[in-house]
Amino acid sequence: MSHDTLLHRAVRPIVKRLGPTWVRPNHITVARFLGALLAAAAFAVGTVDWVLLGAISFTIAAVLDRADGELARLTQHFSPQGHRLDLVADWGADALAFLALGYGARDGWMGWWSILFGILAAAGITALFWQLNGRDAKHGAPRTRHAFDPDDAIFALPILICAVGVTPVLLVSGIVTPLAAVALVTCSFAVRAKPLFRSNAARIGHKV
Fold first, then answer.
1. How far is CA 154 from the centre of its chain?
2. Among residues 45, 179, 165, which one has the least CA distance to residue 110?
3. pLDDT at position 198, please?
4. What is the pLDDT of residue 135?
5. Domains of the chain with bracketed CATH
6. Which of 35, 44, 95, 204 gives a 20 to 30 Å CA spacing to 85?
């Protein structure tokens, strides 16, 4: 994952001002999660005004997610506990958003099916999140420098909600994210199986 995207660069001047203060990365992480909770509560109400408030809160919370990492790198305040807190906050923010969107859209044309699609989207996001982060932790993913990062795709959620509405976003997310999670897990198993297959083939060839 990249630590030098356009979003990281955008929050960097503000974060530099926080460096000499008492503010620590975990403080920003907690604020990020509280913002995500506010967004989820607004999404759950389901009316247009509250969904708009939820979209704004979700965007601010996502920006804060970039800020805590920037502050940690600036001040060198790293800890396993802080890393776990950041992961839980990131996962919880995204999963709760979809669950709340599903509940809030139950009076729309999808009816109570919206709750099911919210659950499916949250489950798919959960599987993708822990699969990607688990793989990066296991293999020690290097720091890269790119203008955009795959994780930045979550910023499209509030934009799409405001542009096309909640129910189309739920319908697509409830289908696409679980399929993407299954595809990622399948590819991971295939990659891990190749060395084993080659090793077995080599032993068989040696015996022959």
1. 6
2. 165
3. 53
4. 56
5. 6-207 (1.20.120.1760)
6. 44
Query: Which residues, including other chains, have CB under 8 Å from residue 75's CB and lie 6 or more apart?
Result: 19, 24, 25
**What's the angle, vertex CA 15, arms to CA 14 and CA 16, rounded to 5?**
90
Distance CA 104, CA 112 (A): 10
Short-list 42, 137, 53, CA closest to 87: 137
122's CB contacts (< 8 A; 6+ apart) are 94, 95, 96, 98, 99, 102
pTM summary value: 0.81
pLDDT of residue 132: 77
Tell me which residue of 67, 3, 75, 6 sits closest to 31, measured CA to CA: 67
The token pair that represents 88 in the structure block: 């839980």
Tell me the sheet residues that pair with 2. Answer: 144
What is the C-alpha R_g of the chain?
20
CB 173 within 8 A of CB 111: no
Q: Of the candidates 148, 159, 189, 134, which has an alpha carbon nearest to the alpha carbon of residue 51? A: 159
In the DSSP assignment, the letter for residue 106 is T
Q: What is the mean pLDDT of the chain?
A: 83
SS3 6: helix
Q: Give residue 189's Cα distance to chain centre.
A: 22
Give me the residues of the chain with pLDDT under 70, please: 1-4, 134-151, 191-208
* Distant-in-sequence, close-in-space partners of 131: CB < 8 Å, separation ≥ 6: 181, 184, 185, 188
